[in-house]
Design goal:
By secondary structure, the protein is of the alpha+beta class. The chain is built from four helices and nine strands, in the order E-E-E-E-E-E-E-E-H-E-H-H-H. 23% of the residues lie in helices and 30% in strands. The strands form two sheets. Strands 3, 4, 5, 6, 7, 8 and 9 form a seven-stranded mixed beta sheet that branches. It has a two-stranded antiparallel ribbon with strand order 1-2. The radius of gyration is 18 Å and the shape is elongated.
């Protein structure tokens, strides 16, 4: 039997939340876990938006082979690339784009150098999971590319999405 396949009836592994609250006792395997199945990373590079699941582990196509620094000055010839965390939520009416947050990176492919703040990427992922819309830093071309991707991926989800998300991406 393949060890990578979950056994029938077993829950998939999920990231556990560790709480400092003494009253909250861990009650069994997987209790208090975050489900990342409803969030996807979108890479916006050069005005083109693509879903790239590799970004979940900092291994998107643009990140592979790049040595990252926390100093922006280390990447003077870089180009701006965005990771947008998009969370999908569900209501009785159906699924919709519930949260979307943007994180900046600078990539110099030729010199294999990059800049990003990992803590910002983690925090923005958390904010997307909490259904926040934080896309103000994106430029008009990047917003248009993201909107086009979201609409083409699932027009029904877009139609059910919040007016806030639509206003940010249309404005």
């Amino acid at each position: 039997m393949d060890n990578n396949q979950p056994k029938a009836g077993k829950k998939p592994l999920a990231l556990n939340i560790v709480s400092s609250n003494e009253k909250s006792k861990h009650k069994g395997f997987g209790a208090g876990s975050i489900d990342l199945n409803n969030v996807s990373p979108v890479i916006i590079d050069g005005g083109e938006a693509k879903i790239d699941i590799g970004a979940m582990h900092a291994k998107s196509k643009v990140e592979r082979g790049i040595k990252f620094s926390a100093n922006r000055e280390d990447v003077p010839a870089g180009r701006q690339v965005w990771v947008v965390w998009v969370a999908v939520d569900r209501t009785p009416e159906g699924q919709f784009y519930g949260g979307a947050t943007a994180c900046e990176m600078w990539i110099d492919t030729e010199n294999k150098r990059g800049w990003k703040i990992l803590a910002d990427h983690v925090n923005k992922l958390d904010y997307a999971l909490k259904r926040r819309i934080m896309l103000d830093e994106l430029g008009p071309e990047d917003k248009a590319a993201l909107k086009q991707l979201l609409v083409s991926h699932n027009a029904d989800w877009w139609a059910r999405s919040s007016d806030e998300l639509k206003a940010v991406l249309e404005g």
